[in-house]
Amino acid sequence: MVTELRTLTYEGDLGSLRAWLAENGTLDITDALVRLEPEERAVSFRLLDKDRALAVFEAMDPLHQQQLLEALRDERVRELFRGLEADDQARLLDEVPATVAARLQAGLTPQQRAATAALLGYPSESAGRIMTPDFTNVRASMTAADALTKLRRAGRRPTRAQALVLPVTDDERRLTGVVDLTDLVTAAPDTRLRELVAPETLSVRVDDEQERAARLLQEADLSALPVVDKEDRLVGMITFDDAMEILEEEDTKDFSRAGGAEPLDQPYLSASVFQLARKRAPWLMMLAVAFTLTVVVLASFESALEAVPALAFFIPMLIGTGGNSGAQAATLVVRALAVGEVRFGDLARIILREMRVGLMLGALLATIAFPLVSIFYSISIGAVISLTLVGICTWASFAGGMLPLIARRLGIDPAVFSSPFITTLVDATGLLIYFSIAYVVMGDQLSGVLG
Amino acid sequence: MVTELRTLTYEGDLGSLRAWLAENGTLDITDALVRLEPEERAVSFRLLDKDRALAVFEAMDPLHQQQLLEALRDERVRELFRGLEADDQARLLDEVPATVAARLQAGLTPQQRAATAALLGYPSESAGRIMTPDFTNVRASMTAADALTKLRRAGRRPTRAQALVLPVTDDERRLTGVVDLTDLVTAAPDTRLRELVAPETLSVRVDDEQERAARLLQEADLSALPVVDKEDRLVGMITFDDAMEILEEEDTKDFSRAGGAEPLDQPYLSASVFQLARKRAPWLMMLAVAFTLTVVVLASFESALEAVPALAFFIPMLIGTGGNSGAQAATLVVRALAVGEVRFGDLARIILREMRVGLMLGALLATIAFPLVSIFYSISIGAVISLTLVGICTWASFAGGMLPLIARRLGIDPAVFSSPFITTLVDATGLLIYFSIAYVVMGDQLSGVLG
């Protein structure tokens, strides 16, 4: 499909291009367009009719939107930008260079400009940045029919937040409740809104974290969540579609960090090779530096390695298994923290659970390893390997379960302490466990060289 | 807060318990309840008024719902179960033992029983399982006022799907379009629905995967997505709240697999230590078996290790860095696949990018490692370590970028090929790269023992 669009674009066959665009849906067109080179995208985009063009534009990432804007005429740019909701306008303004931002804002009415400027005044990652400042608030004393009339007057193309949930406010514009649109339309027209108000009023503060707001909306199954300022005055609404986007972004960030890389903050294929390397280099270097500890540990056990060279053969297996065991624990705890299933107060309980799990897993592996290693090497090496597996798995599960919780407590993203970090930590400490056990079990063979 | 509830429950102080429940919101109560032992939960739960009890029950996981049902009287159980939407009923019926299922269904009307039975007829993980079979369909020839009247008549407590989006159908109940509730309420009452129909009608088939449906709903910013059968007849609606839950579950699954463990399918703290171990043991064992390859590789290079013992010191650092580099690549590609940014067709492009990134990162590390190792050991060992870092990082990024795409093509969950799998693969192959380079660079020191 992309190849088809690319061929048509290269050939400049506008008739066929137009036909292709007419046959495909918004999401398919968007998907195909962003896979073309930035310069090629504008060709097809200009052929879309006005409504479809706005829909495709809305479905793009801010990066792709920016690239497209650079290729279009001023008039078209202003038209597209005006069509976005205020929170999407703010998001885009935040990402484009100042000169482009000025060009975009030129097309807005003074009210629109004030609205996006207000959103940009809130800290990034805050609820204020993703809320829609357009909403239709109602009074508890209104009837259902009044509220519908107010909605109808609010505008011909309402933003979703204007309609999905109606916030009920008092004379000071303080939030006192919410009415769900579905309850409003199914109620008798003369029902007072105070009878329709949801039993609980959930809201977030404008400077709360976006992720917190999004998770609250999800847990409570809300279609829109009111945002209030310090004085509890209503300032905006966060809708489910923005919450879904935030949660996807947050999960992508956690994934990146869990894989030992800084989040890309842009689609994978749009990032250049250099950008990819730059996001990964700091972590890789930091972990490589931490690995020098393993070199030091091994160098200090040189005599043991010379006395029993077979001890070296098991190093990757032992520290690798320890790393995997720690990664399992860390990943589960990081995710449970992210979705709100566990919190710092559960520390003792989690550590106890993880140590028992690590002990069980280590014992299981030891039971398999002991006979095999004893047959191929010796019973004493078999004993060292088995005991090390038990020790390393227990220690790794303990560290993997504990560190993400400590990180959360210290205000660090727990995902940082997932697989690569734990693996590296367990590698150095695992070697100490390994050689300590070796000295205890095989003292007679190693003590000569030690002395 | 949990401690507070637990103390009150133990003390049996019903007055204070009731006061505590009145002061807290649905989500806080749910959160505190599920942290109590299963037997203790029913005590507080019985004190909740009818509406709040249903809200708390709805907010629980199926596992916690089941545990609670077992502790309550038949009449109360039926009342709670009747209060759930059909898709939640089907989900719970699917998880409880057959005897409990019969007890639950006893309280349903024949229509309700038919509706949940129909949902249970669809394969698990299919769109059919999470759709709501209750919806209010309309005709294109109706006016906005007619549609609102039909909605109002549809029931006093409509399910969300009955209202957020109204599916437009023809005489055969085939889906021909959808009208957004927000457009309906803001239109003039005499507007024909055909003027309000959304420009595009997206839908999924009843046997499509849940995840596909949820991602489509998210990408298109829909509040509800129609579900049709093979003949394009409308059979249900999937709402945004169910889609959010599916996406969270799928991301949790990906996280587990990326951490080298099978998904728990239940909240972390509810799983027993034995269940945790059982989900992790298969992967840990499989990877440990794969690690025996590293033992074999190292044993075959025994003479080289004896000739230059310092070569052993760098093993954890080299294979660990390779593993981290591969994990970075794999994690980024797994996530990009999950959110639909890349697909199998991008294989060549991704491999090329990842190899260049790996080369850059390896070269960077080599530049730092060469002088350090040369000073502390020797220039030839410095050369071996640097060249190995370049080779291992390039190879690991290549494997990490490629394997998830191959997995997707073969119908395997790509997340399986994240950190632990790649790390283990790179460990064994990384050693081969290491010793091959050592033989080439330090041939004179190693060839004696080889021959």
TrEMBL record, chains A, B:
Keyword Magnesium: yes
Membrane topology (UniProt): Multi-pass membrane protein
GO MF annotations, alphabetized: magnesium ion transmembrane transporter activity; metal ion binding
CDD domains associated with the record: CBS_pair_Mg_transporter
Protein name: Magnesium transporter MgtE
Record function comment: Acts as a magnesium transporter.
Subunit-structure text: Homodimer.
Species of provenance: Natronosporangium hydrolyticum
InterPro entries: CBS_dom, CBS_dom_sf, Mg_transptr_MgtE_intracell_dom, MgtE_N_sf, MgtE_transporter, SLC41_membr_dom, SLC41_membr_dom_sf
Keywords, in A-Z order: CBS domain, Cell membrane, Magnesium, Membrane, Metal-binding, Transmembrane, Transmembrane helix, Transport
Family matches, as SMART domains: CBS (SM00116), MgtE_N (SM00924)
PROSITE patterns documented for this protein: CBS (PS51371)
Primary localization class, coarse: membrane
Domain CBS: 131-196, 197-255
Family note: Belongs to the SLC41A transporter family.
Ranges that cross the membrane: 283-301, 313-338, 359-379, 385-407, 419-442
Gene Ontology cellular component terms for the protein in this record: plasma membrane
Location within or outside the cell: Cell membrane; Membrane
Domain of life: Bacteria
